[in-house]
Write a structure and sequence with these properties.
251 residues; alpha/beta; Rossmann fold; 7-stranded mixed sheet; binds S-adenosylmethionine
Length: 251
């Protein structure tokens, strides 16, 4: 819980203790009874719109995500070789914690960080701190509208679990239009195990229902979702206890 400790849980604890987040969880019964999103019931709008109007909450959330991402970055780098890629784009990459670590570990690759404009506004500091700023472009935008073209690796980490299938197909089609023909899409998520296994991912699944209105998915569900956007799954690689890399190529 000390903010100066390595792999500190302080920023995560700060985030989940915020009153607006707890108010959403107080509507859990509504979600369980109806399948509808508790956050919208509590606040009258979706969580991403809410955070645009509450920059202090957005900053606390971005820090929590960054700390979580930093915690799993070593597992991701140990599980997957990013060095064959010339341009790695992290779509919805937050302030760039993971991309900075990947670029630091793969000096031959260039990067592109893509997220909402208010989120990437301060990402330059992190890229500077990791000494990768000269190899990384930072672009603000809306992945529901379009994503920049030209990458041969596109990362989507903790993105698809935030949305329903139709929205995900729209995000994935934008990635499909943007990715190079020989590229790889890398979906980093907690893949659901069979019943009575992997309790963490099932708790995350509930959290997705309550807060962003999404869900965790099984390997089969990811395959069929990706197929709808013309991607074919080539591998699923475990990267530590909480995350898997679903690797896919354009068909
Ligand atoms: C659960 S966070 C994951 C962040 C990061 N990939 C990570 O793993 O730490 C989801 C991210 O999606 C971004 N996001 C939400 N809606 C977006 C949109 N319409 N366009 C671009 N990014 C968006 C948020 O700003 C946030 O950074």
């Amino acid at each position: 819980m000390r903010s100066d400790a390595e792999h500190s849980a302080a920023s995560w604890a700060t985030f989940v203790g915020r009153p607006y987040y707890r108010q959403a969880w107080s509507e859990l019964l509504h979600s369980v009874q109806t399948g509808e999103n508790a956050f919208r019931k509590a606040h009258g709008k979706g969580v991403w719109d809410y955070r645009i109007g509450h920059p202090e909450e957005s900053a606390i959330f971005d820090r929590a995500m960054g700390a979580f991402s930093r915690g799993v970055a070593a597992d991701i780098l140990a599980a997957y070789d990013f060095s064959p890629f010339t341009e790695i784009m992290d779509v919805g990459g937050g302030r760039g914690f993971l991309l900075a670590e990947i670029l630091a570990a793969t000096p031959g690759s260039r990067g592109m960080l893509f997220d909402q404009p208010h989120v990437v506004a301060t990402a330059g500091e992190l890229m500077d701190a990791a000494d990768v700023a000269d190899r990384c472009k930072i672009v603000g935008g809306d992945f529901l509208a379009a994503v920049p073209e030209g990458a041969d690796a596109i990362l989507l980490k903790w993105i698809l679990h935030d949305w329903d299938d139709d929205t995900n197909v729209a995000i994935l089609r934008n990635c499909r239009r943007a990715i190079r023909a020989d590229g790889r899409l890398l979906v980093l998520e907690a893949v659901l195990s069979p019943p009575n296994e992997g309790a963490d991912a099932k708790f995350f699944d509930l959290n997705m229902l309550v807060v962003p209105d999404g869900q965790e998915r099984t390997a089969e569900e990811y395959s069929s979702l990706l197929a709808k956007a013309d991607f074919e799954v080539t591998d699923i690689i475990a990267a530590g206890p909480h995350i898997s890399i679903v690797e896919a190529r354009p068909r």
